[in-house]
């Protein structure tokens, strides 16, 4: 949207630790500390022509702290968890390449902090193991000097849209 490269076309890493506190029978609140790699990559057609976008690649490495409310449900004798909440992330480094065959630029365009909301679900495999899928969207533009926000009717600016999935092990 903000960089005209909407889509999930740049895989990254998400790795972290989570603690949870149950406060009702089916509810708990969790807080995580994770390393998240976000960004975007321009796509090209089969002839090598760029499809859209402003740059070839932007990669941003964040330390992220999501705080989520988790609701456990049973459905056809299977256990699931619905989750949602907010996260705050600190930019640790960024890489920007304007061309496909050019080097890394020295220009820094991202803000130091990102604020996002997260929604997701998990399938409970057993008491200690979940398979989860989660979506994160920036609330405000992550570009320096751009003060637009996600719910703006005109321009949402440069935002991170990140989908993550994986296995969660409880100890």
Low-confidence stretches: none
**What portion of residues is helical?**
under 10%
Q: End-to-end distance, in Å?
A: 39 Å
How can the largest sheet be summarized? 7 strands, antiparallel
Helix tally equals 0
Task: Return the average pLDDT rounded to an integer.
Answer: 81
Choose one word for the global shape.
Answer: elongated
What is the C-alpha radius of gyration, as a whole number of Å?
18 Å
Share of residues in strands: over 45%
Assembly state: single chain
Which sequence of strands runs across the widest sheet?
A: 1-2-3-4-5-6-7
**Structural class of the helix and strand makeup?**
mainly beta
Total count of strands: 7
Topology pattern, helix = H, strand = E: EEEEEEE
